[in-house]
Amino acid sequence: MSLSFAPFREGFSPLLEKFPLAEHVDEDLRLLADKTQTIRTYSSLGGMQSTPELARKYGLQMIQGCWIDAIYLDNQREMEALIKSANANPDVVKRVIVGNEVLLRGEMDVDRLIGYIRAVKQAVKQPVSYADVWSMYMKHPQLINEVDFITIISCLIGRTSRSRWKMRRNIWKKSSSKWKTKRVESPPASRF
After folding, report:
1. DSSP-derived secondary structure for 107-176
2. Per-residue pLDDT tens for 44-71?
3. Range of the domain at 162
């Protein structure tokens, strides 16, 4: 089981460019170490630089992400940080994700995203994916050929646990039957 990890505390926000401190990351990973085996991050910068080293300290593995948006220079810095981290920490960083819902947010066209995915794939040994809702993979099926595994985001707020899991299973089945040659993953909902 993996958990999405964004260690922002009260008063900290990427929108305010006030990023978590290394001690916050350390404290949070210590608390998670006996609850999961793997964490998934959304960024490789913005206070997250120490995460691989600290994950190692607590015996955790990572699916490390890089935040992609409409700002080219920020994307380049994020990808460089992801590549550097993945190559320096292959014992911890087991998979990488290039972008999170950038197509859903309408901040980038699919061809530019594919260029970013290809650049990262050429530079790391880990499997590479892109994370978005399943409808974006349906709208842009060419993504399927570019990623090593498909990461589907499902947000099922306000439903009962039974209803949530049934809905997740249906999304996974629909996605899996369409893309038989790729592994389809849907990050589990946090129970904490």
Report:
1. SS-HHHHHHHHHHHHHH-SS-EEEEE-HHHHHH-THHHHH-SEEEE----TTS-HHHHHHHHHHHHHHHH
2. 999 999 999 999 999 999 999 999 999 9
3. 2-185
